[in-house]
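Hello Y.,

Per our agreement to keep a running log of every chain we model this quarter, I'm adding this entry. I've kept the format consistent with earlier entries: sequence first, then predicted structure.
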Amino acid sequence: MTRRYIVTGRVQGVGFRWFVEREASALGIGGWVRNNDDGAVEVLAAGSADQLARLRRALERGPRASRVDEVQEFDEERETSETSFRIEGAW
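Predicted structure for the entry above:
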């Protein structure tokens, strides 16, 4: 299954994307994470229901320097073939 998450709060400039990449990779989830222009972080994740539930809990927690206000979750109609997890837009 594939889900899209939008995470808002103090989630940019605090290592949030690297945190998500580490957590998702440890869980065996494929997909990507990126910063959005509106200050949110967007995550596309593919895995089992259990893997995605565990990722969502990690997104709600975030890294120490972050402050997560909300995690929105959306079903993705199209499945992704991503097998590894990457940070998009990183230099």
